[in-house]
């Protein structure tokens, strides 16, 4: 357990008029997984975690909305107030409260409810293995990126000095994923010769070679479910900075067999919109934008759901999602507010060249006006 004293609280605190974007930046910067919301006197209004942000985004909260709205959504969903302890609590009292309430963050407040310290349950060591197997779908032809893919499989196209697939595996490794399965078909030899058994990349790599293309989910049927209980499936042409540890926690919290990563897609109308009533103009909107949640090509699933995949035939993840919902198996959506880019076309590949040099949430959120 770590206790942040009054001198260190500044990097954890926001005001009610701070935005969701501010909360994301605060949580990313303090590495403690939480932002404390306090009024101008320092009295605690609530706290926001990464999971709270994602649930608020799903509930319709925008990234430029004030965090007060996210607190209201949290109160409505969770239906219990935040937990805190008085400033005279002992370390034993603090630890007991963390354990009894099942929380990772515990504000310590004085008699006026002003925050004087913050207790954080010891985080998992960054090198601890995440109990999932990652499956990277790398067998596609990448025809939309021709002629670049005439001799090279799309996941092996270089971004700077590294192939796309290598960047994906590095991201998995940073979040504690050690077991990786790569599905291959088109020019599979290039992938296998580059990565081998994965030891050179500090992971363990197995391969599933599709003699005929099986879609974005068909090859999952070939996995040994006795070895792989929880699967993280990533398309081999997706770059993403989301936290896979948070995605696993979200997936477990939702208690579903399938969680789908969702990214923001902004459609900007390239003209000014005119509102009318009859012959009268009642308003003007200059190039308005609409934001949609789209399938990000990243999934967390329990191996039990693989029974829905028919053997030896093409089958996509969208098919699996639809069948799961049709048979009464809930599917959760996991909002990705970090950088994300699907490299499907030449324009996307050009933007991907900035992957190593650009940072910040939303940098890779695609806009229709860019395509």
Main attributes of the structure:
371 residues; alpha/beta; 7-stranded mixed beta sheet; disordered C terminus
Distance between the termini: 48 Å
Q: State the total count of DSSP E strands.
A: 20
Estimate what percentage of residues fall within beta strands.
25-35%
Quick one: overall form?
globular
Portion in helices: 10-25%
Poorly predicted runs: 359-371
Q: Major β-sheet, in short?
A: 7 strands, mixed
Q: What's the number of helices?
A: 9
- Strand order, biggest sheet? 12-11-8-13-18-15-19
Describe this structure in words.
This protein has helices at 20-30, 50-58, 67-78, 91-101, 164-174, 188-195, 244-254, 317-326, 346-352; strands spanning 2-4, 13-14, 34-38, 44-49, 85-86, 105-109, 115-120, 133-137, 158-159, 162-163, 179-184, 204-209, 230-235, 238-240, 258-268, 273-277, 280-285, 289-302, 331-336, 340-342. The model is unreliable at 359-371 (pLDDT under 50). With 371 residues, the chain is α/β, with parallel strands linked by helices. α2 (50-58) crosses α3 (67-78). The strands form six sheets. Strands 12-11-8-13-18-15-19 form a seven-stranded mixed β-sheet, sandwiched between helices. The protein has a four-stranded mixed β-sheet with strand order 1-7-6-5, with helices on one face.
């Amino acid at each position: 357990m770590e206790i942040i004293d009054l001198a260190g609280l500044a990097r954890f605190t926001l005001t009610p008029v701070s935005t969701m974007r501010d909360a994301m930046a605060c949580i990313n910067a303090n590495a403690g997984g939480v932002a404390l919301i306090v009024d101008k006197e320092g009295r605690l209004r609530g706290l926001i975690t990464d999971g709270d942000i994602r649930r608020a985004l799903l509930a319709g909260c925008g990234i430029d909305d004030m965090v007060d709205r996210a607190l209201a959504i949290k109160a409505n969903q969770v239906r219990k107030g935040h937990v805190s302890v008085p400033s005279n609590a002992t370390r034993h009292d603090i630890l007991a409260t963390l354990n009894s309430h099942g929380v990772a963050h515990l504000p310590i407040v004085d008699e006026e409810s002003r925050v004087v310290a913050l207790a954080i349950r010891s985080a998992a060591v960054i090198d601890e293995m995440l109990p999932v197997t990652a499956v990277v779908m790398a067998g596609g032809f990448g025809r939309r990126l021709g002629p670049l893919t005439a001799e090279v499989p799309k996941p092996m196209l270089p971004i700077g000095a590294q192939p796309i697939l290598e960047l994906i595996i590095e991201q998995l490794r940073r979040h504690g994923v050690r077991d990786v399965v790569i599905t291959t078909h088109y020019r599979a030899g290039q992938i296998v010769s580059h990565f081998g058994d994965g030891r050179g990349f500090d992971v363990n790599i197995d391969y599933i070679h599709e003699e005929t293309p099986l879609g974005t989910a068909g090859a999952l049927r070939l996995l040994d479910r006795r070895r792989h209980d929880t699967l993280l499936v990533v398309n081999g042409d997706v770059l993403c900075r989301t936290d896979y540890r948070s995605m696993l926690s979200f997936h477990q919290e939702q208690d579903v067999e399938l969680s789908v990563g969702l990214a923001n897609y902004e459609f900007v109308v390239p003209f000014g919109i005119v509102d009318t009533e009859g012959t009268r103009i009642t308003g003007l909107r200059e190039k308005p934008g609409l934001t949609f949640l789209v399938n990000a090509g990243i999934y967390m699933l329990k191996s039990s759901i693989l029974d829905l995949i028919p053997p030896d035939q093409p089958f996509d993840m969208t098919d699996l999602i639809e069948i799961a919902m049709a048979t009464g198996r809930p599917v959760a959506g996991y909002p990705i507010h970090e950088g994300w880019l699907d490299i499907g076309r030449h324009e996307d590949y050009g933007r991907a060249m900035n992957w190593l040099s650009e940072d910040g949430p939303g940098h890779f959120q695609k806009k229709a006006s860019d395509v």
